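Fig. S4 source data, part A: sequence.
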Amino acid sequence: MKIAYPIKFVPILKEKVWGGNKLNRLFKKTSLSNKVGESWEISGVEGNISIIANGEFSGKNLNELIEIFKQDFLGKQVYAKFGNQFPLLFKFIDAKEYLSIQLHPHDALAKLRHNSFGKTEMWHIVQADENANLIIGFKENISEKIYLKHIENGTLEEILHYEKVNEGDSFLIAPGRIHAIGAGVLLAEIQQTSDITYRVYDWNRPDSDGKLRELHNDLVLDAIDFDAPKDFKLECHLVTNHPQKLVALPYFETSLLKVIGKMDRDLSFIDSFVVYMCVAGEVSIHVNSYSEILHIGETVLIPAICTKVSILATNAKLLEVFVPPNQLK
């Protein structure tokens, strides 16, 4: 028995106080709610384990596949490092309103406090309303004293860096970097498997129960980076039918693919599962004798045992993500 086909998962939809209806309206994520903020596309987070939606193993969950197929599913080195824990979390996020201003701890602090991975993440903008922006870091390097003064005075917004965004932009959000997704932004998020967030400020906004959400300013000071970021925007120059690397980290390597016609990918050098997130257009993914259609806003996982993939499209864009084996030693 082998796991040798492109695997789709049932999206896990999350209502959020800041969510909207773009995931339903633009991506056909069926929901009666107009406040859906997140679609967890592939998740190994406890309590939110993804269910397979297609093929022979439809109905099984992600953890069951890992337990059955081990390195054939994850990759030899990935499985050796992470065992049965799926190391990445893939989402689409629709921010009708600003998310809370927040940050995430690095690995060591997250392990110490929460017995969890830290959270390094990246964003790719799929759609953005006019004048939409992100908050990423501070305008300039500041001290802890200055930061605490602004927290006390309720003037944190005055010292934050606002970055105007457009469709196709990509950003790296390092642990400790204060950030927020702005109103009108629809994006793809790739991150370590972690649900640890330190909320700094939430716009004095009540949740669906009419209560203010919890802030975590007591946890922030050991985790925050007070320097202004210089390396957060990821650049690449698209070449049709050739992967363009956006970022290579110990946690994940992400490339942007523009596909017109047919693109063949030899994955034999990648000792890892590979995930494709469709961020524009529509593609047909072919692995062995299997094929799957991937529309904008959909995600598919190629098990590590599959070494050749063909992608067909009229004009589409994909994010290609895997765990780089040279970083796992």
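Fig. S4 source data, part B ends here. The chain has a mean pLDDT of 95.
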